[in-house]
């Protein structure tokens, strides 16, 4: 890897484009290096993973709205659940919302955080539109993951309240550039345009959280496709987009005196970043994964949760301030809060997991579940505190030490105390039950049951298994079609513009 030192430069300085971060990203994307076998296998896993959560979310209102928007725009890309083809950017939009709606797919956490699986819908849609095959798609996805993960390693957005999809737009543009075999200069312009059009604040994940939480990454993917289109037509971007005197670093991040260190593969170096990412067993924000497993473990040692006086979760800075009481969001204790808000309340999640000893992507968030009097009582007894050691482990560069867990201190009304901790989720590569291909397939079949026919499930899984053999124009095989009777169960929605 090459570490790129990225900082602001005044307009009067001699700062050639070959030294811009966007140009370095474009060079990585244009590098013809082959994709290693283990990266390719993980790409297949994540295509299956995305299909799993899309099946679980396909009848939900935000996904239905996005799908109906896409239906108004014919083209050459597919939309999950539908027969027919639609415009690439709107297919990416609809599929991106389906993938993201339940917060149930893969994650990478470092200085910043991300869901790199968000790269797959727009890169796939663009490849379908272009009539490409499996090899090109694999190469594009490998780049998308690599660029997003490397930006997450080097540039923290959330400390400046910038939403993490600002790293996704550039990674999508880079991934499509790889798949299309575009030159460095074209990809450079597309990366700059994508960053410029996808920068937004974190209010989408603060307070009362709306369906935009799912739409935001889909929008970034859509913008990545449009940026590629304009760049291919010869249009340019603001530059230097990160380092400019009025650019991203100077005014939206740490300012003109700060230097960011962004690692990127050297020429000829394989793209392996996807191997450092991890998926979810539970439909909840990633920092909730280990606490859910911890709650399930501790449940067997508690006779009656009504005997609990207080619960304190000692955890990382990020967990405390984003999904814990450090956020100071009263909505995180509101039983009438949106599903998206409850998904970002570790207090609610730990309470329900402790009571039920399990977690379900629908039942655990149901309004009747959130309104149980005993749950509300327990929920309000839970708080979080930042523990410097958990924060250090969260940011560790050592995979064996990096952790996203917590220590739970449960104090009972009689004064007795129960303590336990869990560093990584059971499904994490270092966890009790690491996810491999059988677990991804099981997740898919579980979430697709009653939604996708068994024959369609089998056909899709076979297509993914043979991904590298799919010929030009065959990427439509990666879509899943649903029976019209299933789609008819989707909620009615008001008419829009299209």
TrEMBL record:
Residues 20-257 form the MmgE/PrpD N-terminal domain. Belongs to the PrpD family. Pathway: Carbohydrate metabolism; tricarboxylic acid cycle; isocitrate from oxaloacetate: step 1/2; Organic acid metabolism; propanoate degradation. Pfam families: MmgE_PrpD_C, MmgE_PrpD_N. Monomer. GO terms for biological process: propionate metabolic process; tricarboxylic acid cycle. It is an enzyme of class 4 (lyase). Residues 282-468 form the MmgE/PrpD C-terminal domain. It catalyses: citrate = D-threo-isocitrate; (2S,3S)-2-methylcitrate = 2-methyl-cis-aconitate + H2O. Its EC number is 4.2.1.3, 4.2.1.79. This is Aconitate hydratase. It comes from Corynebacterium vitaeruminis DSM 20294. GO terms for molecular function: 2-methylcitrate dehydratase activity; aconitate hydratase activity. Keywords: Lyase, Tricarboxylic acid cycle. InterPro entries: 2-Methylcitrate_Dehydratase, MmgE/PrpD_sf, MmgE/PrpD_sf_1, MmgE/PrpD_sf_2, MmgE_PrpD, MmgE_PrpD_C, MmgE_PrpD_N.
């Amino acid at each position: 890897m090459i570490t790129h030192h990225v900082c602001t430069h005044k307009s009067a300085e001699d700062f050639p484009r070959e030294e811009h971060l966007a140009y370095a990203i474009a060079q990585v994307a244009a590098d013809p290096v082959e994709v290693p076998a283990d990266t390719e296998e993980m790409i297949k896993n994540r295509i299956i993973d995305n299909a799993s959560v899309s099946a679980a979310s396909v009848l939900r209102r935000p996904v239905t709205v996005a799908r109906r928007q896409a239906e108004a725009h014919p083209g050459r890309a597919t939309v999950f659940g539908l027969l027919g083809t639609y415009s690439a950017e709107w297919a990416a939009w609809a599929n991106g919302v389906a993938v993201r709606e339940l917060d149930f797919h893969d994650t990478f956490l470092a200085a910043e955080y991300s869901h790199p699986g968000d790269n797959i819908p727009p890169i796939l849609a663009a490849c379908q539109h272009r009539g490409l095959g499996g090899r090109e798609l694999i190469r594009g996805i490998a780049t998308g993951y690599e660029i997003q993960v490397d930006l997450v390693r080097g540039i923290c957005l959330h400390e400046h309240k910038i939403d993490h999809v600002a790293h996704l737009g550039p990674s999508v543009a880079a991934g499509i550039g790889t798949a299309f075999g575009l030159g460095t200069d074209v990809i450079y312009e597309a990366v700059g345009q994508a960053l410029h059009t996808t920068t937004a604040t974190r209010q989408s994940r603060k307070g009362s959280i709306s369906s935009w939480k799912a739409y935001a990454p889909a929008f970034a993917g859509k913008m990545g496709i449009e940026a590629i289109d304009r760049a291919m037509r010869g249009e340019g971007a603001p530059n230097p987009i990160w380092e400019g005197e009025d650019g991203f670093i100077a005014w939206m991040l740490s300012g003109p005196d700060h230097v960011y260190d962004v690692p990127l593969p050297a020429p000829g170096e394989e793209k392996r970043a996807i191997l450092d990412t991890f998926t979810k067993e539970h439909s909840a924000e990633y920092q909730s994964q280990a606490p859910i497993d911890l709650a399930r473990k501790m449940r067997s040692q508690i006779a009656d949760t009504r005997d609990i006086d207080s619960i304190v979760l000692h955890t990382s800075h990020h967990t405390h301030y984003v999904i814990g009481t450090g956020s100071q969001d009263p909505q995180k204790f509101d039983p009438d809060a949106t599903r998206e808000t409850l998904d970002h309340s570790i207090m609610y999640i730990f309470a329900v997991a402790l009571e039920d000893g399990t977690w379900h992507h629908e039942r655990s968030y149901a309004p009747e579940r959130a309104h149980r009097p005993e749950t509300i009582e327990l929920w309000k007894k839970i708080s979080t505190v930042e523990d410097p050691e958990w924060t250090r482990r969260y940011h560790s560069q050592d995979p064996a030490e990096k952790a996203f867990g917590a220590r739970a201190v449960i104090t009972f009304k009689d004064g007795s105390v129960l303590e336990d901790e869990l560093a990584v989720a059971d499904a994490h590569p270092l966890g009790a039950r690491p996810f491999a291909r059988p677990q991804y397939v099981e997740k898919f079949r579980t979430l697709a049951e009653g939604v996708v026919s068994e024959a369609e499930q089998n056909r899709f899984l076979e297509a993914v298994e043979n991904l590298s053999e799919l010929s030009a124009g065959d990427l439509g095989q990666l879509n899943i079609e649903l029976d019209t009777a299933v789609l008819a169960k989707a909620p009615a929605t008001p008419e829009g513009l299209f």
